Automatic annotation (TrEMBL):
Belongs to the major facilitator superfamily. EmrB family. GO terms for molecular function: transmembrane transporter activity. This is EmrB/QacA subfamily drug resistance transporter. The keyword Phosphoprotein does not apply. One of its GO terms (cellular component) is plasma membrane.
């Protein structure tokens, strides 16, 4: 890859739009699932949940292979294929007469969106020099944070006033415009290795491994850990992942270069990002349960409660990017994680009387803290890698976000359920009024899960103390090699 003297902002804007609409769609149906159940006559909630779970599974399976596609094909070709698949899937979903067709449309959507985030990250790493990369990745944070946060809020408003199909009709023209602009305007910014081959065994192992782990943990909250479909798929997935990693270490040109974990700052950034994702998902998963079930707040109001935090996080992303360029990740990560620890602890003190504004204020301040950590830490880790390893670094980061989100959600929901059941039994034995048992027990379960989430955030804070500004491994010799390759490519 080459670092451009003048970043191609027009190309990045096109990629930015495509990635935004793809990630936005990931959470778009969360609030619309009950309406879809009623309209398509689906009796089982676990069946309709596949519209969300399936989307995440396809992402988790395809993202690890993104490193190969980005190295093998031009970013223009990848974008056109990805947005074409996404647009076709969106059209199928909008017109779907049955649940099966709707699910197929969502899967096709996901196959396109899975390539968009790694593609955008790689182009931005290639287009911006190291000293300006924090600002660039800060704007990238807008896509990663604001898009999925706006989805449920917009979905709640539309479903209340219109058909759920309108959700897809809104997305389709944006996707088609982005596709048309990409086909006309996009130029290649990355170096291709035409000799690289796709290791089919690695693809199969990756699909079974990440797919099994994601499915198992995603299903644990609703199906229970004792279900063979849960512990069986997790076990098979972990075994496949172990073999997958072993195989990557043996291959000269692996599907996913796991050897990049020899760079300490990249390894540290991965661990902090996993802990942060698990802690962040505690808010996204547990808060709607608390405000809707215990406080009796509607789904739309629940989405609005979390919207200021998401918008603030989006506003802060470019600002923290600039601060990262100037001061480094450590100066931002330590106070940011301290805020996450404090606000998560405050959530562990929730009560029946906690007001709507109190919850919104804590949640918004919490997202402010997360905005100071997420992109700076991730960018700091990527900056330590050689240029040729960028596709692998971005693929690993995006895959870990999917997996840690699923694992964190399942883990915290399980803790909540266990605590709820235990407290409910104790309250029933003490002769408490039946009508008060469920809410009191559920509140105890939610606050307990937040207590554990606080400990996870503390662990991330302690790890952040070891963050350093990495010495760049890409020095003059490698830059000269990249320059030679670029000249050869330009002459062909």
């Amino acid at each position: 890859m080459t670092e451009q003297k003048k970043p191609p902002y027009g190309i990045i804007a096109i990629l930015f739009t495509g990635a935004f609409v793809a990630i936005f769609t990931q959470t778009l149906l969360n609030v619309a699932l009950p309406s879809i159940m009623a309209d398509l006559n689906i009796k089982d909630a676990s069946t309709v949940q596949w519209l969300v779970t399936g989307y995440m599974l396809v992402n988790g399976i395809l993202i690890p292979a993104s490193a190969y596609f980005i190295q093998r094909y031009s970013n223009r070709s990848i974008f056109i294929v990805a947005m074409s698949l996404f647009s076709i899937g969106t059209l199928i979903a909008a017109l779907s007469p049955t649940f099966g067709v709707l699910l197929a449309g969502r899967m096709i959507q996901a196959s396109g969106s899975a390539l968009m985030m790694p593609l955008l990250m790689n182009v931005m790493l290639a287009a911006f020099p190291v000293e300006k990369r924090g600002s660039a990745m800060g704007f990238f944070g807008l896509v990663m944070v604001v898009a999925p946060a706006i989805g449920p809020t917009l979905s709640g408003f539309i479903v209340e006033h219109y058909s759920w199909r309108v959700l897809f009709w809104i997305v389709l023209p944006i996707a088609l415009i982005s596709l048309a602009l990409g086909a006309v305007k996009l130029k290649n910014l990355t170096f291709q290795d035409r000799e690289i081959t796709l290791d089919k065994a690695s693809v199969i192992l990756s699909s079974i491994g990440f797919g099994g782990v994601l499915y198992g943990f995603s299903s644990a909250g609703s199906m229970g850990w004792q279900t063979p479909a849960v512990y069986g798929t997790i076990s098979v997935g972990l075994l496949a992942l172990a073999i997958f990693i072993w195989r990557q270490l043996k291959l000269d040109k692996p599907l996913l270069q796991v050897r990049i974990y020899k760079y300490p700052m990249f390894a540290l950034s991965s661990v902090i990002s996993i802990a942060l994702a698990m802690s962040m998902f505690s808010g996204m998963i547990l808060m709607p349960i608390y405000v809707q079930t215990i406080k009796g707040i509607s789904p739309i109001e629940s989405g609005l409660l979390m919207l200021p935090g998401a918008l603030l996080m989006g506003i802060m992303s470019p600002i923290t990017g600039r601060l990262f360029d100037r001061f480094g990740a450590r100066v931002l990560a330590i106070p940011g994680l301290a805020i996450v620890v404090i606000t998560t602890f405050l959530f562990s003190q929730l009560s029946m009387e906690t007001s709507f504004l109190q919850i919104m204020a804590i949640y918004t301040f919490r997202m402010f803290g997360i905005s100071m950590v997420m992109m700076p830490v991730m960018t700091n880790g990527l900056n330590t890698l050689p240029i040729k390893s960028y596709p692998h670094g971005t693929a690993i980061n995006n895959t870990l976000q999917q997996v840690s989100g699923a694992i964190g959600s399942a883990f915290l929901i399980t803790l909540m359920n266990m605590r709820t059941e235990s407290v409910a039994q104790d309250l029933a034995a003490s002769g408490a009024a039946p009508e008060s048992i469920m809410n009191s027990a559920l509140l105890e379960g939610i606050t307990y899960a937040f207590e554990i989430s606080t400990l996870i955030a503390i662990a991330a804070l302690l790890l952040a103390l070891f963050i350093k500004k990495p010495a760049r491994p890409v020095e003059e010799a490698e830059k000269e090699e990249v320059y030679k390759r670029t000249k050869v490519a330009e002459s062909q």
